[in-house]
Hints:
Blueprint: E1 10-12, E2 42-44, E3 48-53, E4 58-65, E5 73-79, E6 85-90, E7 93-99, E8 105-114, E9 117-126, E10 131-138, E11 141-148, E12 151-158, E13 161-165, E14 171-173, E15 177-186, E16 192-202, E17 205-214, E18 217-218, E19 222-223, E20 233-240, E21 245-254, E22 257-266, E23 269-277, E24 280-285, E25 291-296, E26 299-303, E27 318-319, E28 326-332, E29 338-345, E30 351-358, E31 365-371, E32 379-384, E33 399-405, E34 412-416, E35 420-423, E36 431-436, E37 448-453, E38 463-467, E39 475-481, E40 489-496, E41 501-503, E42 508-509, E43 519-526, E44 533-539, E45 546-547, E46 554-556, E47 564-568, E48 577-584, E49 587-588, E50 596-598, E51 608-615, E52 619-620, E53 622-625
Amino acid sequence: MLAHRAHPPRRLAAGLASAAVLTAGLACAGTSHAAEPTGLPRTIGFQPGDLATTASDVYALGDIDTDGSYEEREARVEAIGSGASVRLGADTQAGAISATPDGGTLYVLGSRPAGDWSANTLWTVNAATMQVTDTVTVEGQPYALAAGAAGAYVAYTGMSGTAVSGGVLSTEVPGNLQANHLEVLPGAGGTEALILGATDYDESGGVPTLRTITAAGVSERIVLGPDDDHRGFITGLDVDEARGLTYAVTAHTGEDGTDFGLNIIGAGVDRYVPLGAGQLSSVDVSPDGETVYLSGHWVSAHDVDALESYTEENPAPGSTLPGGASIGVVEVAPSGRIYVAGQDQLEDGSTVNRIHAIETPGAPTSLTATADEEFPGSVTVTWAPPADVGGVDPESLTYPITVQDRAGGAPVVDVAYGSDYELQDLEVGHTYTVSLAARNGAFVSAAATTTVTVKAPVAAPSRIAVRGESEVGSKLTVANTGSWTSGTTLSYVWTNDRDQVVSRSSSLTLTKAHLGRRIYVQVTGTKAGFAPVTVYGSLGGKIVKGTLVSRMPSVTGAAKVGKKLSAKTGAWTPGTAFSYRWTVNGKVIKGATASTLKLKAAQAGKQIRVVVTGTKPGYRPTTKTSNPTAKVKR
Protein backbone atom coordinates (compact mmCIF):
# COMPACT_ATOMS: atom_id res chain seq x y z
CA MET A 1 0.00 0.00 0.00
CA LEU A 2 1.04 3.62 -0.36
CA ALA A 3 2.77 4.97 2.74
CA HIS A 4 1.48 8.51 3.13
CA ARG A 5 3.70 11.09 4.75
CA ALA A 6 2.55 13.31 7.63
CA HIS A 7 3.69 16.44 5.76
CA PRO A 8 3.03 17.53 2.17
CA PRO A 9 5.30 16.14 -0.51
CA ARG A 10 8.46 18.12 -1.03
CA ARG A 11 9.06 19.87 -4.33
CA LEU A 12 11.96 19.47 -6.74
CA ALA A 13 12.29 22.91 -8.26
CA ALA A 14 13.18 23.46 -11.89
CA GLY A 15 15.81 25.97 -10.77
CA LEU A 16 19.13 24.66 -9.48
CA ALA A 17 19.11 26.40 -6.12
CA SER A 18 16.77 23.81 -4.62
CA ALA A 19 17.92 20.81 -6.69
CA ALA A 20 20.04 19.39 -3.89
CA VAL A 21 16.95 18.50 -1.87
CA LEU A 22 16.42 15.53 -4.16
CA THR A 23 19.05 13.38 -2.50
CA ALA A 24 18.88 14.74 0.99
CA GLY A 25 17.74 11.92 3.21
CA LEU A 26 16.37 9.75 0.39
CA ALA A 27 18.96 6.95 0.16
CA CYS A 28 18.27 4.22 2.68
CA ALA A 29 19.87 0.81 3.16
CA GLY A 30 17.66 -2.20 2.46
CA THR A 31 17.91 -5.85 3.42
CA SER A 32 18.62 -8.03 0.43
CA HIS A 33 16.64 -11.15 -0.26
CA ALA A 34 18.49 -14.43 0.10
CA ALA A 35 18.60 -15.19 -3.60
CA GLU A 36 17.33 -14.12 -6.99
CA PRO A 37 13.73 -14.94 -7.92
CA THR A 38 12.88 -18.53 -8.77
CA GLY A 39 9.94 -20.10 -10.54
CA LEU A 40 10.14 -17.85 -13.58
CA PRO A 41 8.46 -16.99 -15.86
CA ARG A 42 5.95 -15.42 -13.49
CA THR A 43 2.65 -13.86 -14.46
CA ILE A 44 1.91 -10.32 -13.26
CA GLY A 45 -1.28 -8.30 -13.48
CA PHE A 46 -0.01 -5.39 -15.56
CA GLN A 47 2.27 -4.65 -18.49
CA PRO A 48 5.61 -3.43 -17.17
CA GLY A 49 6.84 -0.15 -18.57
CA ASP A 50 10.21 -0.46 -16.84
CA LEU A 51 12.29 -2.87 -14.76
CA ALA A 52 14.90 -2.38 -12.07
CA THR A 53 17.22 -5.09 -10.79
CA THR A 54 19.21 -5.65 -7.64
CA ALA A 55 21.40 -8.48 -6.44
CA SER A 56 18.38 -10.26 -4.99
CA ASP A 57 15.27 -9.24 -6.90
CA VAL A 58 13.74 -7.63 -9.95
CA TYR A 59 11.11 -4.93 -9.71
CA ALA A 60 8.44 -4.28 -12.33
CA LEU A 61 6.80 -0.89 -12.72
CA GLY A 62 3.54 -0.35 -14.56
CA ASP A 63 -0.03 0.87 -14.43
CA ILE A 64 -2.95 -1.22 -13.18
CA ASP A 65 -6.33 -0.82 -14.82
CA THR A 66 -8.55 -0.27 -11.77
CA ASP A 67 -11.93 0.00 -13.49
CA GLY A 68 -11.56 -2.34 -16.47
CA SER A 69 -11.62 0.49 -19.02
CA TYR A 70 -8.21 2.11 -18.46
CA GLU A 71 -9.98 5.36 -17.63
CA GLU A 72 -8.87 4.90 -14.04
CA ARG A 73 -5.48 3.43 -13.27
CA GLU A 74 -2.86 3.27 -10.61
CA ALA A 75 0.94 2.97 -10.76
CA ARG A 76 2.35 -0.12 -9.09
CA VAL A 77 5.77 -1.54 -8.23
CA GLU A 78 5.98 -5.31 -7.76
CA ALA A 79 8.93 -7.29 -6.40
CA ILE A 80 8.91 -10.38 -8.58
CA GLY A 81 10.87 -12.55 -6.18
CA SER A 82 8.96 -11.86 -2.97
CA GLY A 83 5.64 -11.00 -4.58
CA ALA A 84 5.39 -7.88 -2.43
CA SER A 85 4.10 -4.74 -4.11
CA VAL A 86 3.33 -1.09 -3.49
CA ARG A 87 0.61 0.97 -5.12
CA LEU A 88 1.37 4.65 -5.55
CA GLY A 89 -2.18 5.93 -5.28
CA ALA A 90 -5.29 6.48 -7.36
CA ASP A 91 -4.79 8.04 -10.81
CA THR A 92 -1.01 7.83 -10.56
CA GLN A 93 0.93 6.92 -13.69
CA ALA A 94 4.24 5.09 -13.93
CA GLY A 95 7.20 6.38 -15.90
CA ALA A 96 10.56 4.93 -14.87
CA ILE A 97 12.19 3.02 -12.02
CA SER A 98 15.80 2.72 -10.88
CA ALA A 99 17.55 1.05 -7.93
CA THR A 100 20.54 2.21 -5.93
CA PRO A 101 23.71 0.09 -6.27
CA ASP A 102 23.21 -1.46 -2.82
CA GLY A 103 19.69 -2.56 -3.78
CA GLY A 104 18.14 -0.92 -0.74
CA THR A 105 16.23 1.91 -2.37
CA LEU A 106 14.00 2.20 -5.42
CA TYR A 107 13.19 5.48 -7.11
CA VAL A 108 10.06 5.78 -9.22
CA LEU A 109 9.36 8.61 -11.62
CA GLY A 110 5.80 9.26 -12.70
CA SER A 111 2.83 11.50 -12.07
CA ARG A 112 0.01 11.86 -9.55
CA PRO A 113 -3.12 13.99 -9.42
CA ALA A 114 -2.81 17.52 -8.04
CA GLY A 115 -6.15 19.25 -8.24
CA ASP A 116 -7.12 19.73 -11.87
CA TRP A 117 -3.58 18.93 -12.98
CA SER A 118 -1.12 16.13 -12.60
CA ALA A 119 2.16 16.62 -10.78
CA ASN A 120 5.35 15.01 -11.98
CA THR A 121 6.56 13.04 -9.00
CA LEU A 122 9.53 11.11 -7.66
CA TRP A 123 8.71 8.41 -5.12
CA THR A 124 11.27 6.74 -2.87
CA VAL A 125 10.54 3.12 -1.97
CA ASN A 126 12.31 1.00 0.63
CA ALA A 127 13.06 -2.22 -1.28
CA ALA A 128 13.07 -4.36 1.86
CA THR A 129 9.64 -3.27 3.13
CA MET A 130 8.11 -2.16 -0.18
CA GLN A 131 6.90 1.01 1.51
CA VAL A 132 7.06 4.56 0.14
CA THR A 133 9.39 6.61 2.32
CA ASP A 134 9.39 9.91 0.47
CA THR A 135 7.43 11.73 -2.24
CA VAL A 136 8.89 14.68 -4.16
CA THR A 137 7.18 16.88 -6.75
CA VAL A 138 9.29 17.50 -9.83
CA GLU A 139 8.64 20.93 -11.30
CA GLY A 140 9.25 20.70 -15.01
CA GLN A 141 8.89 17.83 -17.44
CA PRO A 142 11.09 14.87 -16.41
CA TYR A 143 12.47 12.66 -19.18
CA ALA A 144 14.98 10.32 -17.55
CA LEU A 145 15.84 8.78 -14.18
CA ALA A 146 18.96 7.14 -12.80
CA ALA A 147 19.96 6.04 -9.29
CA GLY A 148 23.46 6.14 -7.90
CA ALA A 149 25.10 5.69 -4.54
CA ALA A 150 24.29 9.30 -3.69
CA GLY A 151 20.61 8.98 -4.53
CA ALA A 152 18.39 9.75 -7.52
CA TYR A 153 19.16 11.86 -10.57
CA VAL A 154 16.46 13.28 -12.83
CA ALA A 155 16.89 14.89 -16.23
CA TYR A 156 14.05 17.28 -17.02
CA THR A 157 13.03 20.33 -18.96
CA GLY A 158 12.11 23.40 -16.91
CA MET A 159 11.53 27.07 -17.40
CA SER A 160 15.18 27.75 -18.19
CA GLY A 161 15.77 24.72 -20.40
CA THR A 162 17.13 21.25 -19.80
CA ALA A 163 18.68 20.44 -16.45
CA VAL A 164 19.79 17.52 -14.32
CA SER A 165 19.04 17.48 -10.61
CA GLY A 166 20.81 15.34 -8.05
CA GLY A 167 23.11 16.65 -5.35
CA VAL A 168 26.49 18.01 -6.47
CA LEU A 169 25.76 16.96 -10.05
CA SER A 170 22.77 19.30 -10.37
CA THR A 171 23.32 21.54 -13.35
CA GLU A 172 21.77 23.20 -16.32
CA VAL A 173 22.59 21.70 -19.71
CA PRO A 174 23.11 24.36 -22.36
CA GLY A 175 21.67 23.99 -25.82
CA ASN A 176 18.39 23.29 -27.56
CA LEU A 177 17.92 19.69 -26.55
CA GLN A 178 15.60 17.17 -25.01
CA ALA A 179 17.03 14.64 -22.56
CA ASN A 180 15.83 11.06 -22.97
CA HIS A 181 18.36 8.75 -21.29
CA LEU A 182 20.41 8.98 -18.12
CA GLU A 183 22.98 6.57 -16.66
CA VAL A 184 25.32 6.70 -13.66
CA LEU A 185 29.01 5.90 -14.20
CA PRO A 186 30.85 5.31 -10.91
CA GLY A 187 34.26 6.92 -10.59
CA ALA A 188 37.26 6.81 -8.30
CA GLY A 189 36.87 7.55 -4.62
CA GLY A 190 33.13 7.10 -4.57
CA THR A 191 32.48 9.85 -7.10
CA GLU A 192 29.85 9.53 -9.79
CA ALA A 193 29.44 10.88 -13.29
CA LEU A 194 26.23 11.07 -15.27
CA ILE A 195 25.93 10.10 -18.92
CA LEU A 196 23.15 12.12 -20.51
CA GLY A 197 21.65 10.94 -23.78
CA ALA A 198 19.66 13.57 -25.61
CA THR A 199 18.34 14.78 -28.94
CA ASP A 200 19.79 18.13 -29.94
CA TYR A 201 17.78 20.23 -32.37
CA ASP A 202 18.96 22.65 -35.07
CA GLU A 203 17.72 23.76 -38.45
CA SER A 204 18.42 20.32 -40.00
CA GLY A 205 16.47 18.39 -37.38
CA GLY A 206 17.39 16.30 -34.38
CA VAL A 207 20.70 14.55 -33.77
CA PRO A 208 21.53 12.07 -30.97
CA THR A 209 24.12 13.28 -28.50
CA LEU A 210 25.96 12.31 -25.32
CA ARG A 211 27.25 14.53 -22.55
CA THR A 212 29.13 13.65 -19.39
CA ILE A 213 28.18 15.49 -16.21
CA THR A 214 30.61 15.60 -13.30
CA ALA A 215 31.06 17.85 -10.32
CA ALA A 216 33.21 20.02 -12.60
CA GLY A 217 30.33 20.64 -15.00
CA VAL A 218 28.96 19.50 -18.34
CA SER A 219 31.25 18.20 -21.07
CA GLU A 220 31.05 19.13 -24.72
CA ARG A 221 28.46 17.09 -26.56
CA ILE A 222 29.44 14.06 -28.61
CA VAL A 223 27.31 13.62 -31.70
CA LEU A 224 26.40 10.00 -32.34
CA GLY A 225 25.63 8.03 -35.48
CA PRO A 226 27.22 7.52 -38.89
CA ASP A 227 29.54 10.20 -40.23
CA ASP A 228 27.51 10.84 -43.38
CA ASP A 229 24.26 11.73 -41.60
CA HIS A 230 23.92 12.17 -37.85
CA ARG A 231 20.20 12.86 -37.81
CA GLY A 232 18.35 10.38 -35.62
CA PHE A 233 17.73 9.56 -31.98
CA ILE A 234 18.85 7.26 -29.17
CA THR A 235 16.78 4.12 -28.52
CA GLY A 236 18.91 2.63 -25.73
CA LEU A 237 21.77 3.61 -23.44
CA ASP A 238 23.90 1.73 -20.90
CA VAL A 239 27.34 2.01 -19.33
CA ASP A 240 30.15 -0.48 -18.80
CA GLU A 241 31.23 0.36 -15.27
CA ALA A 242 34.23 -1.96 -15.48
CA ARG A 243 35.78 -0.23 -18.50
CA GLY A 244 34.25 3.23 -18.24
CA LEU A 245 32.51 2.96 -21.62
CA THR A 246 29.09 4.07 -22.78
CA TYR A 247 27.07 2.08 -25.30
CA ALA A 248 24.26 3.83 -27.15
CA VAL A 249 21.96 2.45 -29.82
CA THR A 250 20.88 5.10 -32.30
CA ALA A 251 18.26 5.01 -35.04
CA HIS A 252 18.69 6.80 -38.37
CA THR A 253 16.65 7.05 -41.55
CA GLY A 254 18.17 4.80 -44.21
CA GLU A 255 17.38 4.06 -47.85
CA ASP A 256 15.11 1.14 -46.96
CA GLY A 257 13.72 2.35 -43.66
CA THR A 258 15.23 2.85 -40.23
CA ASP A 259 18.83 1.73 -39.73
CA PHE A 260 20.34 1.17 -36.32
CA GLY A 261 23.88 1.46 -35.05
CA LEU A 262 25.87 0.93 -31.86
CA ASN A 263 27.98 3.80 -30.55
CA ILE A 264 30.84 3.09 -28.14
CA ILE A 265 32.08 6.16 -26.30
CA GLY A 266 34.83 6.50 -23.67
CA ALA A 267 38.21 8.02 -22.95
CA GLY A 268 39.90 8.02 -26.36
CA VAL A 269 37.10 5.84 -27.78
CA ASP A 270 34.49 6.95 -30.32
CA ARG A 271 33.25 4.10 -32.51
CA TYR A 272 30.14 3.50 -34.56
CA VAL A 273 29.14 -0.04 -35.58
CA PRO A 274 26.29 -0.30 -38.13
CA LEU A 275 23.64 -2.81 -37.08
CA GLY A 276 21.37 -2.64 -40.13
CA ALA A 277 17.59 -2.63 -40.15
CA GLY A 278 15.41 -4.26 -37.50
CA GLN A 279 13.81 -2.79 -34.42
CA LEU A 280 16.25 -2.32 -31.53
CA SER A 281 14.77 -0.82 -28.40
CA SER A 282 17.50 -1.16 -25.77
CA VAL A 283 21.10 -1.98 -24.99
CA ASP A 284 22.44 -3.62 -21.82
CA VAL A 285 26.01 -4.43 -20.82
CA SER A 286 26.97 -7.51 -18.85
CA PRO A 287 28.47 -6.83 -15.41
CA ASP A 288 31.94 -7.92 -16.60
CA GLY A 289 31.72 -5.65 -19.63
CA GLU A 290 32.43 -8.47 -22.07
CA THR A 291 29.00 -8.75 -23.69
CA VAL A 292 26.54 -6.23 -25.05
CA TYR A 293 22.90 -7.33 -25.27
CA LEU A 294 20.72 -5.70 -27.90
CA SER A 295 16.97 -6.12 -27.60
CA GLY A 296 14.22 -5.95 -30.18
CA HIS A 297 12.27 -8.93 -31.44
CA TRP A 298 14.86 -11.06 -29.63
CA VAL A 299 17.83 -10.53 -27.33
CA SER A 300 21.17 -10.85 -29.15
CA ALA A 301 24.54 -11.20 -27.42
CA HIS A 302 27.50 -9.34 -28.93
CA ASP A 303 31.10 -9.98 -27.89
CA VAL A 304 32.53 -6.51 -27.28
CA ASP A 305 35.87 -7.58 -28.77
CA ALA A 306 34.21 -8.68 -32.02
CA LEU A 307 31.44 -6.15 -32.60
CA GLU A 308 32.36 -5.55 -36.25
CA SER A 309 32.42 -9.29 -37.03
CA TYR A 310 28.65 -9.75 -36.97
CA THR A 311 26.91 -9.65 -40.33
CA GLU A 312 23.63 -10.72 -41.85
CA GLU A 313 25.31 -13.99 -42.82
CA ASN A 314 27.05 -14.30 -39.43
CA PRO A 315 24.63 -12.79 -36.92
CA ALA A 316 25.20 -12.53 -33.20
CA PRO A 317 23.61 -15.38 -31.25
CA GLY A 318 20.11 -14.51 -30.14
CA SER A 319 17.50 -15.62 -27.61
CA THR A 320 13.75 -15.77 -28.07
CA LEU A 321 11.19 -16.44 -25.37
CA PRO A 322 9.21 -19.70 -25.15
CA GLY A 323 6.07 -19.84 -27.24
CA GLY A 324 7.06 -16.82 -29.30
CA ALA A 325 6.29 -14.36 -26.50
CA SER A 326 6.96 -10.77 -27.48
CA ILE A 327 9.88 -9.02 -25.81
CA GLY A 328 9.33 -5.81 -23.90
CA VAL A 329 11.60 -4.21 -21.34
CA VAL A 330 14.97 -5.93 -20.78
CA GLU A 331 17.24 -5.43 -17.77
CA VAL A 332 20.50 -7.15 -16.76
CA ALA A 333 20.92 -7.92 -13.05
CA PRO A 334 24.21 -7.49 -11.16
CA SER A 335 24.60 -11.28 -11.35
CA GLY A 336 24.43 -11.15 -15.16
CA ARG A 337 20.99 -12.74 -15.31
CA ILE A 338 18.74 -11.14 -17.92
CA TYR A 339 15.18 -10.24 -16.98
CA VAL A 340 12.65 -9.73 -19.75
CA ALA A 341 9.11 -8.41 -19.56
CA GLY A 342 7.29 -10.55 -22.10
CA GLN A 343 3.75 -10.69 -23.35
CA ASP A 344 2.63 -14.27 -23.98
CA GLN A 345 -0.30 -15.14 -26.23
CA LEU A 346 -2.56 -17.90 -24.96
CA GLU A 347 -4.40 -20.49 -27.05
CA ASP A 348 -7.65 -18.54 -26.81
CA GLY A 349 -5.97 -15.47 -28.28
CA SER A 350 -5.72 -13.53 -25.04
CA THR A 351 -2.41 -12.30 -23.67
CA VAL A 352 -0.74 -12.36 -20.27
CA ASN A 353 2.21 -10.39 -18.97
CA ARG A 354 5.09 -12.39 -17.58
CA ILE A 355 8.56 -11.72 -16.24
CA HIS A 356 11.08 -14.11 -17.78
CA ALA A 357 14.67 -14.81 -16.81
CA ILE A 358 17.36 -15.73 -19.32
CA GLU A 359 20.33 -17.43 -17.72
CA THR A 360 22.96 -20.10 -18.28
CA PRO A 361 21.51 -23.33 -19.68
CA GLY A 362 22.45 -26.82 -18.56
CA ALA A 363 25.12 -28.75 -20.41
CA PRO A 364 24.23 -31.22 -23.18
CA THR A 365 23.87 -34.81 -22.00
CA SER A 366 24.58 -38.25 -23.44
CA LEU A 367 27.50 -36.96 -25.49
CA THR A 368 29.02 -39.68 -27.69
CA ALA A 369 31.55 -39.70 -30.51
CA THR A 370 31.50 -42.74 -32.78
CA ALA A 371 33.88 -43.51 -35.62
CA ASP A 372 32.09 -43.94 -38.94
CA GLU A 373 32.30 -47.53 -40.17
CA GLU A 374 31.86 -46.58 -43.79
CA PHE A 375 34.20 -43.60 -44.03
CA PRO A 376 37.54 -43.92 -42.17
CA GLY A 377 38.58 -40.61 -40.61
CA SER A 378 34.97 -39.57 -39.99
CA VAL A 379 33.32 -39.40 -36.57
CA THR A 380 29.66 -38.80 -35.73
CA VAL A 381 29.01 -36.81 -32.55
CA THR A 382 25.56 -37.11 -30.96
CA TRP A 383 24.03 -35.65 -27.80
CA ALA A 384 20.77 -34.89 -26.02
CA PRO A 385 19.69 -31.26 -25.42
CA PRO A 386 19.79 -30.05 -21.81
CA ALA A 387 16.62 -30.23 -19.77
CA ASP A 388 17.25 -26.67 -18.52
CA VAL A 389 17.49 -24.35 -21.53
CA GLY A 390 17.96 -21.22 -19.41
CA GLY A 391 14.53 -19.68 -19.91
CA VAL A 392 14.52 -19.41 -23.72
CA ASP A 393 12.66 -21.09 -26.54
CA PRO A 394 14.42 -24.47 -26.98
CA GLU A 395 14.73 -23.66 -30.69
CA SER A 396 17.17 -20.89 -29.70
CA LEU A 397 19.80 -23.43 -28.65
CA THR A 398 23.01 -23.84 -30.60
CA TYR A 399 26.02 -25.95 -29.65
CA PRO A 400 29.57 -24.61 -29.77
CA ILE A 401 31.84 -27.59 -30.47
CA THR A 402 35.60 -27.88 -30.10
CA VAL A 403 37.64 -30.80 -31.38
CA GLN A 404 41.26 -31.08 -30.18
CA ASP A 405 43.78 -33.60 -31.48
CA ARG A 406 45.67 -34.89 -28.46
CA ALA A 407 48.77 -35.07 -30.64
CA GLY A 408 48.71 -31.27 -30.80
CA GLY A 409 47.75 -28.63 -33.31
CA ALA A 410 45.06 -26.00 -33.41
CA PRO A 411 41.58 -27.06 -32.30
CA VAL A 412 38.67 -27.14 -34.69
CA VAL A 413 35.93 -24.79 -33.48
CA ASP A 414 32.45 -24.69 -34.96
CA VAL A 415 28.77 -24.31 -34.09
CA ALA A 416 26.44 -27.31 -34.31
CA TYR A 417 22.66 -27.44 -34.51
CA GLY A 418 20.12 -30.13 -33.66
CA SER A 419 21.56 -33.19 -31.94
CA ASP A 420 24.35 -34.52 -34.17
CA TYR A 421 27.49 -33.35 -35.93
CA GLU A 422 29.81 -34.98 -38.45
CA LEU A 423 33.61 -34.70 -38.11
CA GLN A 424 35.65 -35.48 -41.20
CA ASP A 425 39.27 -35.82 -42.32
CA LEU A 426 40.54 -36.89 -38.90
CA GLU A 427 43.91 -38.58 -38.68
CA VAL A 428 43.79 -42.37 -38.45
CA GLY A 429 45.38 -43.57 -35.23
CA HIS A 430 44.89 -40.24 -33.41
CA THR A 431 42.77 -39.62 -30.32
CA TYR A 432 40.56 -36.53 -30.16
CA THR A 433 38.83 -34.72 -27.30
CA VAL A 434 35.39 -33.43 -28.24
CA SER A 435 33.90 -30.64 -26.11
CA LEU A 436 30.32 -29.51 -26.58
CA ALA A 437 28.41 -26.74 -24.80
CA ALA A 438 24.85 -25.43 -25.13
CA ARG A 439 24.29 -21.78 -26.00
CA ASN A 440 20.87 -20.18 -25.63
CA GLY A 441 21.88 -16.96 -27.36
CA ALA A 442 22.92 -14.99 -24.30
CA PHE A 443 24.79 -17.61 -22.28
CA VAL A 444 26.96 -20.68 -22.80
CA SER A 445 26.75 -23.73 -20.55
CA ALA A 446 29.60 -25.75 -19.10
CA ALA A 447 30.98 -28.13 -21.70
CA ALA A 448 30.40 -31.86 -21.87
CA THR A 449 33.43 -33.79 -23.12
CA THR A 450 34.21 -37.17 -24.60
CA THR A 451 37.11 -38.76 -26.47
CA VAL A 452 37.31 -40.84 -29.60
CA THR A 453 40.18 -42.69 -31.23
CA VAL A 454 40.18 -42.90 -35.00
CA LYS A 455 41.30 -46.49 -35.58
CA ALA A 456 42.81 -47.86 -38.77
CA PRO A 457 40.20 -49.81 -40.71
CA VAL A 458 40.51 -53.55 -41.26
CA ALA A 459 41.58 -54.55 -44.75
CA ALA A 460 38.52 -55.46 -46.77
CA PRO A 461 37.68 -56.73 -50.25
CA SER A 462 37.34 -54.05 -52.88
CA ARG A 463 33.89 -55.42 -53.62
CA ILE A 464 31.66 -58.39 -52.94
CA ALA A 465 29.45 -60.31 -55.33
CA VAL A 466 26.26 -62.21 -54.63
CA ARG A 467 26.14 -65.67 -56.09
CA GLY A 468 22.87 -67.35 -56.92
CA GLU A 469 19.85 -66.87 -59.13
CA SER A 470 17.19 -64.18 -58.83
CA GLU A 471 14.40 -66.65 -58.27
CA VAL A 472 12.60 -68.26 -55.37
CA GLY A 473 14.38 -71.32 -54.08
CA SER A 474 17.86 -70.13 -55.00
CA LYS A 475 20.49 -70.04 -52.24
CA LEU A 476 22.44 -66.77 -52.24
CA THR A 477 26.02 -66.60 -50.98
CA VAL A 478 28.73 -63.95 -50.94
CA ALA A 479 31.91 -64.04 -53.01
CA ASN A 480 34.77 -61.65 -52.21
CA THR A 481 37.06 -59.84 -54.59
CA GLY A 482 40.08 -59.50 -52.35
CA SER A 483 40.49 -60.58 -48.75
CA TRP A 484 39.93 -59.46 -45.17
CA THR A 485 42.59 -58.88 -42.52
CA SER A 486 43.47 -62.19 -40.91
CA GLY A 487 41.34 -62.80 -37.83
CA THR A 488 38.49 -60.55 -38.96
CA THR A 489 35.03 -61.59 -37.82
CA LEU A 490 32.35 -61.15 -40.45
CA SER A 491 28.69 -60.36 -39.92
CA TYR A 492 26.02 -60.26 -42.60
CA VAL A 493 22.86 -58.29 -43.12
CA TRP A 494 20.57 -59.10 -46.05
CA THR A 495 17.96 -56.46 -46.90
CA ASN A 496 15.39 -55.80 -49.58
CA ASP A 497 14.60 -52.64 -51.51
CA ARG A 498 12.26 -51.56 -48.69
CA ASP A 499 15.21 -51.49 -46.28
CA GLN A 500 13.75 -54.46 -44.43
CA VAL A 501 16.23 -56.89 -42.90
CA VAL A 502 15.45 -60.36 -44.23
CA SER A 503 18.38 -62.34 -42.80
CA ARG A 504 21.56 -62.06 -40.78
CA SER A 505 23.09 -65.34 -41.89
CA SER A 506 26.01 -65.79 -44.25
CA SER A 507 23.60 -67.08 -46.92
CA LEU A 508 20.00 -66.47 -47.91
CA THR A 509 17.57 -68.92 -49.48
CA LEU A 510 14.93 -66.99 -51.42
CA THR A 511 11.28 -67.64 -50.57
CA LYS A 512 7.94 -66.35 -51.77
CA ALA A 513 8.34 -63.44 -49.31
CA HIS A 514 11.10 -62.09 -51.53
CA LEU A 515 9.06 -62.10 -54.75
CA GLY A 516 9.22 -58.82 -56.65
CA ARG A 517 11.90 -57.34 -54.38
CA ARG A 518 15.56 -56.57 -54.98
CA ILE A 519 18.05 -58.10 -52.55
CA TYR A 520 21.16 -56.47 -51.06
CA VAL A 521 23.81 -57.65 -48.65
CA GLN A 522 26.25 -55.81 -46.41
CA VAL A 523 29.18 -57.57 -44.83
CA THR A 524 30.89 -55.96 -41.84
CA GLY A 525 34.34 -56.99 -40.75
CA THR A 526 35.40 -56.35 -37.15
CA LYS A 527 38.64 -56.97 -35.32
CA ALA A 528 39.93 -55.70 -31.99
CA GLY A 529 42.13 -52.63 -32.39
CA PHE A 530 40.76 -51.79 -35.83
CA ALA A 531 37.87 -49.74 -37.11
CA PRO A 532 35.13 -51.91 -38.59
CA VAL A 533 34.55 -51.80 -42.33
CA THR A 534 31.35 -52.57 -44.20
CA VAL A 535 31.21 -53.53 -47.88
CA TYR A 536 28.09 -53.88 -49.95
CA GLY A 537 26.78 -56.11 -52.72
CA SER A 538 23.52 -56.74 -54.55
CA LEU A 539 21.76 -59.34 -56.66
CA GLY A 540 20.81 -58.08 -60.10
CA GLY A 541 17.12 -57.91 -60.95
CA LYS A 542 13.97 -58.46 -58.99
CA ILE A 543 13.18 -61.88 -57.56
CA VAL A 544 10.93 -64.00 -59.81
CA LYS A 545 9.11 -67.27 -59.26
CA GLY A 546 11.34 -70.29 -58.91
CA THR A 547 11.47 -73.59 -60.82
CA LEU A 548 10.42 -76.71 -58.94
CA VAL A 549 12.79 -79.63 -58.69
CA SER A 550 10.76 -82.40 -60.37
CA ARG A 551 10.91 -86.03 -61.48
CA MET A 552 9.02 -88.06 -64.05
CA PRO A 553 6.27 -89.91 -62.21
CA SER A 554 5.94 -93.67 -62.42
CA VAL A 555 2.92 -96.01 -62.39
CA THR A 556 2.93 -99.11 -60.20
CA GLY A 557 0.45 -102.01 -60.06
CA ALA A 558 -0.79 -104.74 -62.48
CA ALA A 559 -2.22 -103.45 -65.75
CA LYS A 560 -5.29 -105.71 -65.57
CA VAL A 561 -9.00 -104.98 -65.48
CA GLY A 562 -10.19 -104.71 -61.90
CA LYS A 563 -6.74 -103.93 -60.54
CA LYS A 564 -5.57 -100.57 -59.10
CA LEU A 565 -2.71 -98.48 -60.48
CA SER A 566 -0.82 -95.98 -58.24
CA ALA A 567 1.13 -92.86 -59.24
CA LYS A 568 4.59 -92.34 -57.69
CA THR A 569 5.84 -88.72 -57.91
CA GLY A 570 9.47 -89.21 -56.99
CA ALA A 571 11.65 -86.49 -55.38
CA TRP A 572 10.35 -82.94 -55.90
CA THR A 573 11.06 -79.66 -54.11
CA PRO A 574 9.97 -80.13 -50.48
CA GLY A 575 6.51 -78.77 -49.81
CA THR A 576 5.26 -79.31 -53.34
CA ALA A 577 1.54 -80.08 -53.68
CA PHE A 578 0.44 -82.49 -56.42
CA SER A 579 -2.59 -82.91 -58.66
CA TYR A 580 -3.25 -85.92 -60.96
CA ARG A 581 -4.84 -86.72 -64.31
CA TRP A 582 -5.00 -90.21 -65.82
CA THR A 583 -5.10 -90.86 -69.57
CA VAL A 584 -5.91 -93.88 -71.67
CA ASN A 585 -4.18 -94.01 -75.04
CA GLY A 586 -3.57 -90.26 -74.60
CA LYS A 587 -7.14 -89.30 -73.81
CA VAL A 588 -8.05 -87.92 -70.36
CA ILE A 589 -10.14 -90.26 -68.28
CA LYS A 590 -13.05 -88.23 -66.97
CA GLY A 591 -13.07 -87.94 -63.16
CA ALA A 592 -9.73 -89.69 -62.73
CA THR A 593 -7.93 -87.10 -60.51
CA ALA A 594 -6.75 -89.22 -57.60
CA SER A 595 -3.28 -90.67 -57.14
CA THR A 596 -4.75 -94.12 -57.90
CA LEU A 597 -6.86 -95.55 -60.73
CA LYS A 598 -8.98 -98.73 -60.77
CA LEU A 599 -8.91 -100.25 -64.23
CA LYS A 600 -12.19 -100.94 -66.03
CA ALA A 601 -13.16 -103.30 -68.87
CA ALA A 602 -13.38 -100.39 -71.29
CA GLN A 603 -9.65 -99.83 -70.81
CA ALA A 604 -8.64 -103.36 -71.75
CA GLY A 605 -6.06 -103.48 -74.49
CA LYS A 606 -5.09 -99.87 -73.97
CA GLN A 607 -2.10 -98.10 -72.32
CA ILE A 608 -2.42 -95.93 -69.23
CA ARG A 609 -0.37 -92.84 -68.26
CA VAL A 610 -0.50 -90.46 -65.28
CA VAL A 611 0.03 -86.69 -65.58
CA VAL A 612 1.34 -85.08 -62.35
CA THR A 613 1.31 -81.28 -61.79
CA GLY A 614 3.37 -79.87 -58.89
CA THR A 615 2.61 -76.47 -57.32
CA LYS A 616 4.15 -74.46 -54.51
CA PRO A 617 3.73 -70.77 -53.57
CA GLY A 618 6.53 -68.72 -55.12
CA TYR A 619 7.18 -71.31 -57.86
CA ARG A 620 5.94 -71.82 -61.35
CA PRO A 621 3.71 -74.93 -61.73
CA THR A 622 5.48 -77.95 -63.27
CA THR A 623 3.80 -80.86 -65.06
CA LYS A 624 5.37 -84.28 -65.67
CA THR A 625 3.89 -87.31 -67.52
CA SER A 626 4.78 -90.94 -66.82
CA ASN A 627 5.73 -93.55 -69.37
CA PRO A 628 2.79 -95.68 -70.62
CA THR A 629 1.94 -98.95 -68.94
CA ALA A 630 1.68 -102.22 -70.79
CA LYS A 631 -1.64 -102.82 -72.48
CA VAL A 632 -4.34 -103.57 -69.93
CA LYS A 633 -5.28 -107.26 -69.82
CA ARG A 634 -8.73 -108.61 -69.21
